[in-house]
Amino acid sequence: MTDAARQPEGVPEASASVRAGHEALGGHRRGPAAVLPFIGPAFIASVAYIDPGNFATNISSGAEFGYNLLWVVVYANVMAMIIQSLSAKLGIATGKNLPELMREQYPPWLIWPLWVVAEIMAMATDLAEFVGAAVGFNLLLRIPLLVGAILTGIATFGMLYLQRRGFRPLEALITVMVLVVAGCYVLELILSGPSLGQMAYHGVVPYVAPNTFLLSAGILGATVMPHVVYLHSALTQSRIRPRTDLEARRLYRFTLVDVLIALPLAGVVNGGMLVMAAVVFHEHGFTSLSDLGAAYRTLTPLLGPAAGAIFAVSLLASGLSSSAVGTMAGQIVMQGFIGFSIPVWVRRFITMLPALVVVGLGLPTAQVLVGSQVVLSIVLAFAVVPLIAFTSNRKIMGALVNRRITTLVGWLCAAVIVALNILLVVTTLGAHVPGVS
Hints:
Number of strands: 0
CATH topology: Amino acid/polyamine transporter I
Oligomer: single chain
Strand content: under 5%
Order of helices and strands: HHHHHHHHHHHHHHHHHHH
Structural class: mainly alpha
Distance between the termini: 48 Å
CATH architecture: Up-down Bundle
CATH superfamily: Amino acid/polyamine transporter I
Radius of gyration: 21 Å
Largest sheet: none
CATH class: Mainly Alpha
Number of helices: 19
């Protein structure tokens, strides 16, 4: 078990939460008081669904295609709820996280490549988070991006230090940051005044064209994040352990409430980003934004200084919270796949190096962030396919094994992910390699 997942010993707050959880599982708590001890893991996972990579892909999509790709956000969010609920269920049923089970079930010759892919995923994730938070610091404090990236690393260590005080303080802080981002985008939507009719239509009816595959894959990679597929199982594997099959089923129902609150909230934020960009940028002819700073500078004269400040605050809150979550996920991945861990500060330093390079070279942040999300989309199947296979196996899951319809829907999600990435590769090759169409 990893440090991130381990239940702290001798922490009164943590013990009180565990006691409250067992009271709820035993039927001694009713209503909101029964659900409250189980609220938190999905909010930590939801941070990855509103990280700076989402800002880049959603704003780029809205600016270039207007409302047309809103359906991708909606459908990707539904997929995210399904996949995250399966990850949480895996941790509850087995007491192990997804990387640990993969190491247990798969041969070593397969585990090492899977671990390498997972580490590439972690680097792409950190790139988005660090660059986004650095841009947020830059916009708010007018400091150089490199200094902002360093401040992001320091702030991340401070947030992770809260883990020593139990799981509740960090969950509470991250939940507050999620609500800050959500509140900011509610204000942005009010200021921009979108068309409700267009939102309703384009949120349901697909718009498909070859030139949309790159951003569609970016939205998918930014919404269904592979590192939190791994992480969610670790957050539930030992948080509150069920003692009977009845308690396991009840715990999973409480966990679903957590997912059904946190993930739709993240979906609303993502949709809000795209819609705001459609109204403010696309409809005013700003169809190509080179970086998040350009989005901020364009937003301010169109909607006023308050809109720009709200955008910067939401970006900073998103970057800081997702950076802490990314570090937690990275530790889970390394410990789970190869049974080895390194000090958090060492891992944090290594994984922030690509972000420092991007910032130091002055590369366009929006393009870099969209590219990182496409990488995440491509590696997503390596987490989702084993997850569905394991949760469909009664020997592994026991009483919490998937129902047939759940397995069918899960494989459908995996098929969509793989198909979109094949389309992305084919259309990209067709655009750059002579003779390929």
